[in-house]
């Protein structure tokens, strides 16, 4: 531990979690002012009455008070606010498919079968992502080309009667009107995929652009920009334009017929569309960064073929293909059969890819199993490393459901006489069966959970023995805490099971609908209620998303609520799917690293990175980068505080290759005891980070966790802090409801759960330990005086006082 001098000061750099926050809330001040940033990523400090940056409250240590500067990094503007960002919620299926890439199991070193399986899985993910984009284009074609242009605007149709017949008969009018929304959609998707966050400092941007593979084994080492993203983007755009042309020309199975030179032109355009789609599929299948990045392998030829100039030529030819298709369709027929066929073919191909992906994922997870077999069961990856398969299935079914959900209300608005493709009847059956199974599953889970909880409390079973230690002598707080502990533990332990149930019910509905469609069996009468319910579910899905986007333009708070989805999905860079919102981690982490390095230029400054919820992942990755880049004498002046973090129960289990358990142990060892984790048992979203296998024995809290040297093993019994917190290893278990109130300190009544960790007095103590100003193994500190006398008439079950 470094000795604090007279010029020592502590900079507490806070990073918020999902949904964003206000600058004042982040820095615990009545006013805040920007001190750095570009308006998108903002660094703020408390402000005085003249709106000048002011230091934070002094940090009390054992020896003397130390100057503290409180700063906050606001990144909520990257995921919420305004219509443009709100529309990103409509790309949620794309984002889920992209997240599935980061959920793949790790590839053991020097294991050729695992390496080949990893290549195959990544390739299948990129193919699935391309099919998902093509499915969206095909479903928009159903609405614009078939429902609107072909059926509603045909001469003599009783639909949109305000449009005269002469306009409907005008050459190329209906074809142009049908293709225009598709081209606009593709242009918007291409524009979204080009959006990227500008890093504030030029030297950081140049360093991030360097293609180097970190070998530190620290958290988030592989979170970097994929150099193949521009090529993937171009292939998606080319495939989308080709699919639009293919649908207008008759579909993938049969082209439109015509005589003479017109028939030859249609045949040529139809073949070119298929060739462009095939080349796009082949390109995304082969374009893998680990292979293409090696100069001695064949991937370099693919990169050369997909460099900037060939990509522009490819895109120009695709645009010419669409214009040619427009010229060949002077008048649309009464129906566009290619739309229905294309949707069904793409859906079958997606189902085949998902099944193949799931089958290949089984041996890949088994080969990676040796990397986590030594871990306790509660720390192992979800579903044995197979969790990416159900997530990918959900992405595909949500993508198909949203398109059908849009088509149904559009047909109702235009007129019931319009006919949807036959395949849509099976989509409604799919979602009807899935919705019914979801209701039954919800009822079963709720009934079982309620029965288990009632039986446990009726028999007096102790679910939260740790709470008895934290609330000894305060029975009212103990009763409230025990109830919250139970529900929080249930949500953490079974949240991934709910995702598996959702995937299962959707897959069951998909299998039933697919079998009926493939065998061309007319739908039995007993399926009619399910189809009607499916129409309701799909309509509710589409209307809810569209309404949320509309409200985001009128009410900023709605945009912030949509940010919950974006905050989780947008942490991951574009890898499997290029048409997703930009990754904010690629901007936040380098700018946090730069800010810390600026502060460390002052030899008397110590910096503590503090992250809440999703912010804990950002500061952990930033701390890992700092350990890689800083010299040894500067590494001793950085610390880390996480609060309400998912760095144990969620991220290592969902993303075992990116945030593995071993990387967290390495980070803890690199920080040498200066990583403190604040946790509450009542928090359903956050939990312990540094310890596991906790138990209460003889009035003491014991457990296993990270030691200061990075090793793992049994820890000394937890020490009680001056405000009632129990410190076990690096975890600070906070009493919730808080003890107190304490004189001169902000106090929050009731159960806080996942919010307001900074209100607990233990926050300051954790910051001081992370800054190296307090020794965690020091003798127990004297308790702070209470502003009111606590309840002492009752004792807890363990006999604490």
TrEMBL record:
Transmembrane segments: 124-149, 169-189, 235-253, 265-287, 313-329, 341-362, 383-404, 424-452, 498-518, 530-553
Compositionally biased intervals (Basic and acidic residues): 788-801
Stretches the record annotates as Disordered: 774-801
Keyword field: Membrane, Transmembrane, Transmembrane helix
Keyword Ubl conjugation found: no
Gene3D superfamilies tied to this protein: alpha/beta hydrolase (3.40.50.1820)
InterPro entries for the chain: AB_hydrolase_fold
Name the UniProt record assigns to this protein: Lipase (Class 3)
């Amino acid at each position: 531990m470094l000795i604090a001098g007279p010029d020592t000061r502590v900079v507490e750099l806070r990073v918020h979690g999902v949904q964003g926050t206000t600058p004042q809330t982040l820095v615990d001040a009545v006013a805040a002012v920007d001190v750095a940033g570009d308006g998108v990523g903002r660094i703020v400090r408390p402000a005085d009455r003249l709106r000048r940056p002011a230091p934070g409250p002094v940090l009390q240590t054992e020896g003397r008070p130390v100057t503290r500067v409180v700063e906050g990094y606001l990144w909520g503007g990257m995921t919420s606010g305004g219509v443009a960002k709100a529309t990103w919620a409509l790309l949620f299926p794309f984002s889920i498919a992209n997240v599935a890439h980061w959920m793949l199991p790790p590839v053991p070193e020097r294991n050729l079968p695992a390496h080949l399986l990893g290549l195959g899985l990544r390739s299948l993910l990129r193919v699935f992502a391309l099919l998902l984009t093509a499915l969206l284009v095909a479903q928009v074609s159903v609405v614009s080309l078939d429902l609107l242009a072909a059926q509603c605007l045909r001469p003599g149709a009783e639909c949109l009667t305000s449009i005269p017949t002469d306009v409907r008969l005008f050459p190329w009018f209906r074809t142009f009107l049908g293709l225009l929304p598709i081209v606009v959609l593709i242009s918007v998707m291409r524009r979204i995929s080009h959006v990227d966050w500008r890093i504030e400092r030029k030297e950081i941007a140049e360093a991030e652009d360097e293609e180097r593979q970190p070998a530190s084994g620290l958290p988030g080492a592989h979170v970097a920009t994929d150099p193949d993203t521009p090529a993937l983007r171009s292939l998606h755009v080319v495939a989308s334009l080709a699919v639009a042309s293919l649908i207008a020309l008759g579909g993938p199975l049969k082209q439109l017929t015509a005589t003479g030179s017109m028939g030859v032109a249609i045949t040529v355009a139809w073949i070119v569309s298929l060739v462009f789609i095939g080349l796009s599929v082949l390109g995304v299948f082969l374009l893998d960064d680990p292979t293409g990045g090696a100069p001695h392998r064949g991937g370099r030829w693919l990169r050369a073929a997909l460099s900037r100039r060939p990509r522009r030529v490819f895109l120009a030819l695709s645009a010419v293909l669409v214009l040619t298709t427009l010229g060949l369709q002077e008048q649309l027929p009464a129906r566009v059969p290619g739309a229905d066929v294309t949707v069904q073919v793409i859906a079958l191909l997606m189902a085949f890819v998902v099944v193949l992906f799931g089958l290949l994922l089984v041996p890949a997870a088994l080969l990676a199993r040796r990397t986590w077999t030594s871990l306790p069961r509660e720390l192992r990856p979800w579903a044995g490393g197979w969790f990416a398969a159900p997530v990918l299935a959900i992405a595909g079914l949500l993508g198909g459901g949203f398109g059908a959900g849009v088509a149904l209300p559009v047909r109702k608005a235009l007129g019931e006489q319009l006919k949807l493709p036959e395949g849509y009847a099976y989509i409604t059956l799919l979602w009807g069966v899935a919705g019914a199974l979801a209701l039954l599953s919800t009822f079963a889970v709720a009934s079982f959970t309620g029965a288990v909880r009632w039986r446990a409390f009726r028999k007096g079973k102790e679910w939260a023995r740790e709470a008895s230690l934290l609330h000894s002598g305060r029975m009212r707080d103990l009763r409230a805490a025990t109830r919250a502990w139970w529900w929080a533990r249930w949500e953490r332990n079974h949240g991934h099971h709910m995702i598996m149930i959702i995937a299962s019910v959707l897959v069951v509905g998909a299998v039933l609908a697919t079998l009926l469609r493939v065998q061309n069996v007319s739908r039995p009468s007993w399926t009619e209620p399910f189809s009607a319910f499916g129409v309701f579910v799909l309509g509710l899905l589409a209307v809810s998303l569209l309404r949320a986007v509309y409200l985001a333009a009128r009410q900023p708070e709605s945009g912030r609520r949509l940010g919950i989805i974006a905050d989780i999905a947008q942490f991951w860079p574009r890898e499997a799917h290029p048409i997703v919102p930009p990754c904010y981690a690629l901007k936040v982490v380098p700018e946090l690293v730069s800010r810390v390095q600026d502060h460390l230029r002052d030899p008397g400054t110590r910096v503590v990175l503090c992250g809440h919820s999703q912010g804990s992942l950002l500061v952990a990755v930033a701390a890992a980068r700092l350990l890689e880049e800083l010299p040894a004498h500067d590494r001793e002046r950085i610390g880390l505080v996480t609060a309400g973090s998912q760095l144990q129960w969620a991220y290592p289990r969902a993303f075992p290759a990116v945030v593995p358990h071993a990387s967290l142990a390495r980070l803890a060892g690199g920080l040498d005891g200066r990583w403190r984790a604040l946790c509450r048992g009542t928090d359903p979203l956050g939990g312990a980070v540094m310890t596991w296998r906790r138990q209460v024995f003889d009035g003491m809290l014991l457990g296993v966790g990270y030691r200061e040297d990075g090793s793992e093993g049994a820890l000394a019994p937890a020490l009680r802090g001056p405000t009632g917190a129990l410190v076990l290893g690096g975890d600070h278990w906070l009493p919730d409801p808080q003890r107190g109130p304490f004189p001169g300190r902000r106090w929050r009544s009731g159960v806080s759960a996942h919010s307001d960790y900074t209100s607990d007095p233990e926050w300051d103590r954790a910051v001081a330990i992370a800054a190296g100003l307090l020794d965690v193994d020091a003798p127990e500190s004297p308790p702070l005086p209470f502003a009111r006398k606590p309840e002492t008439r009752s004792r807890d079950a363990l006999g604490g006082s």
